[in-house]
């Protein structure tokens, strides 16, 4: 934890960033589905991933999204990748920027992974743009 923040700060700021990046609807669904068993994990990701990492000032949100997309492709985490394509759009990444990330991934992570990522990204971008009315 950064010395200037309390655990409560990290949780509340993390929840705000998580909502901004993933959407209120997504976070509301995740919270509604939380059980006694999954509550510690929900707390962990809200406090650490969103409250400690995504709130750091060193990178802007589009850059964090680009890094996250690449990491998810590298590990074949396709459900999370789909969610973070929408998050990248919400964070201000253009369709062209997402495309560039996927082209970069093709070279460094392999064409089959990038091929799969392009298919998922195209579907998620269309769904996001339809839902948000943000077609490019």
From TrEMBL:
InterPro entries: 4CMD/NDH-1_regulator, AhpD-like, CMD-like, Decarb_PcaC. Signal peptide: none annotated. Residues 41-122 form the Carboxymuconolactone decarboxylase-like domain. GO terms for molecular function: peroxiredoxin activity. NCBIfam families: decarb_PcaC. This is 4-carboxymuconolactone decarboxylase. It comes from Branchiibius hedensis.
């Amino acid at each position: 934890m950064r010395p200037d923040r309390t655990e409560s700060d990290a949780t509340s700021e993390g929840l705000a960033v998580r909502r901004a990046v993933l959407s209120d609807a997504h976070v509301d669904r995740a919270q509604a589905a939380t059980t006694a068993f999954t509550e510690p994990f929900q707390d962990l990701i809200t406090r650490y991933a969103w409250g400690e990492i995504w709130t750091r000032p060193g990178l802007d949100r589009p850059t964090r999204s680009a890094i996250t997309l690449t990491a998810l492709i590298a590990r074949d985490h396709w459900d999370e990748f789909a969610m973070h394509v929408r998050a990248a759009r919400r964070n201000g990444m253009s369709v062209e920027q997402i495309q560039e990330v996927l082209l970069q991934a093709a070279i460094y992570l392999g064409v089959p992974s990038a091929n799969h990522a392009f298919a998922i990204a195209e579907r998620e971008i269309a769904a996001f743009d339809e839902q948000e009315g943000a077609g490019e």
